[in-house]
Amino acid sequence: MASTKKLSAEETAALLANLEKRFKANQQRHKGIDWAIIEAQLVKAPAKLWSLYQMEASGGEPDLVVLRGETGFCDCAPESPKGRRSTCYDQEALDARKEHKPADSAVGMAKEMGIDLLDEAQYRALQELGKFDQKTSSWIKTPAKIRELDGALFCDRRYETVFLYHNGASSYYAARGFRGFLKL
């Protein structure tokens, strides 16, 4: 990442304090993991700290999780992060819109933030750790075959069930954003 994507000492301290507080309040998401080890890894990785700061600033409430054997930080806000809603799926979809273009795309924002969109398996694994997107929905990584046909996938949780849906990649809604994952 570019050198401009670096936090000040004050921003780093505040972010780490917030992450530690969330980590301790949600032990069920990362059983048996010691915060001191995670913090030491983060301090050595300024680019990851910058990405976590972006996740936090856009309303993601990132927390450490283990999804399908991968440890990393994931957006654990109850609803899709407020600062990442009203986006179409990717740049191609954004470019295809003739009118009423959203400000950005989910894939583009994730790339700029240095995080990955969740795939379907990760999204379902996250839902085993809590109840997310009960009023909103989140774009997820879309297989190339679907994307080539101008489609994209999103998920939500309704009726105590996690649903997978499709939509045109250029669509966007005020209640649809995306959740990210930052692998450690």
Task: Walk me through what this model shows.
- The mean pLDDT is 95.
- This protein has 7 helices and 8 strands.
- A hairpin with a 2-residue loop joins strand 1 and strand 2 (70-75).
- It has helices at 9-25, 35-43, 46-57, 91-96, 106-113, 120-127, 144-148; strands spanning 62-67, 70-75, 116-117, 137-140, 151-158, 161-168, 176-178, 180-183.
- 35% of the residues lie in helices and 22% in strands.
- The chain is α+β, with helices and mostly antiparallel strands.
- The strands form 2 sheets. A 4-stranded antiparallel sheet has the order 1-2-8-3, sandwiched between helices. Strands 6-5-4-7 form a 4-stranded mixed sheet.
- It has one domain.
Would you kindly provide a brief summary of this structure?
With 184 residues, the chain is α+β, with helices and mostly antiparallel strands. The protein contains seven helices and eight strands.
What is the terminal separation in angstroms? Answer: 16 Å
The parts where pLDDT drops under 50 for at least 5 residues are none
Number of alpha- plus pi-helical segments: 7
Radius of gyration: 16 Å
User: What characteristic shape results from the CA principal axes?
Assistant: globular
Question: How much is the average pLDDT?
Answer: 95
Number of domains: 1
Spatial order of the strands in the main sheet?
A: 1-2-8-3
